[in-house]
Amino acid sequence: MAGQTMTAPAEKPALSRPGILIPALSVAAAAAWCTSLAVGHTHTFDVGIHRLALSAHVLAMVLAFGSVIVVDWVGFLWLVGKRGLRDTSRLEQAAAPLIWAGLAGLLVTGALIHPDITSPATQLKMCCVLGLMLNGISLIPVMRRLHLLPEGTMFKEVSGSLRARLLVALVLSQAFWWTAIMVGFANSISRR
Ligand code: HEM
User: Which residue, judged by its Cα, is nearest atom 32 of ligand 1?
Assistant: First the structure.
């Protein structure tokens, strides 16, 4: 129309496009995981650093897993109709930086305490660590879809495919975390 200027839709930054974001984050997580294992396997640090890193490892676990438990629990309460969708979304958004900071701490401190990657139990633990990171990343677009739903949406009103996806993610998250924690403690006890 005469006198009107047409503005092109704003370009989204490349990494915020869902098609690129998820593979990019998955590759970054896998690379961080590989680096942590490679450093941990090839380097041995002195006893003082080892002790400090083991304490920091447990603290990082408390930060990440504590936040995961609260998010998964409130998600479960929404699932059984005891909480609103908004509670779940707000909590998930607030807790995400704590979870990822804790996970980064686990990768860094884990590398300083010399994991025995030839042990099958440690291999199982490490697969769980990679699995829980990739599970968390794959949930990003799912959570975005959930955040777009109206405030009072109940779990049973959500599409069957989204419900199945959320349930699988919840079960996988808990299974990976508990296995990693149990193996971590079992390894520690058997090394003493
Ligand atoms: C979700 C991630 C992880 C969880 C939940 C986890 C959990 C744990 C727990 C509970 C312990 C026992 C601590 C203690 O006895 O005081 C532990 C120990 C340990 N963790 Fe982790 N950890 C994780 C990631 C990692 C990573 C990425 C590495 C190495 C790259 C690692 C290497 C170790 C080592 C070397 C020990 C000492 C026991 C052993 O000899 O295996 N952990 N972890």
Answer: 110
